[in-house]
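Q: I'm writing up a methods section and want to include an example of the input and output format. Could you take the sequence below and give the corresponding predicted structure tokens, formatted cleanly so I can copy it straight into the document?
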Amino acid sequence: MRPDLEQKIVAALPQDERFVGGFSVMRATTGQDSVSSDAPAERRPRALAGEGALWVAGISASFKGVINDVGSPSAREGTEDPAKRPKRQRKNASFFGGRDSLAGQWLAAAQPRSRAGLVTTVVLTDKRLRFEYIPRRRLTGRLGDTVELGASFSPDSLTWTRRRNTHLDMQFGFTDGSWGTVMAAPEEDFLQVFPGTLSHLVPIP
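A: Here is the clean output for your methods example:
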């Protein structure tokens, strides 16, 4: 992880938590299927509401894709029907679970809505798995000073990680049987946090 990003992430953590590792995430890039890993817009959290407001005010709505505030192309609800799980395992599906499942909550946190460009990070501490949002200017890559804490999860709620394919799309499996897919990068940062990640050749557990 780039040193300036790590410094901001660590500084924003609760004082009783110790940084272990982290990586950036974005929505999955490949293989969207019948129940997408894209979280519906109304479930995605608003992040960094005060960042970039003046800049955005002068930009046409047609540029929303540039500032990370587009709605999901899929609002389809997931399914938690245990009878459908084996079929979705065999299909290497990008998402299984209801939108309120642990995977559904994870995917929503990984796809925040923001008026500013931002970096979405997953941070592992000695106590929690946390999402943090840091503003970043699109043209220069310069990081802003604000860091916002997002949703957090117990590390024990995550039971496995797996490559979905040969790209950077990674799956996260949870104790309630749900799983979801996001793109994780840089790869070396992700693997430092989850060295036991399963190959895409291994079936979904």
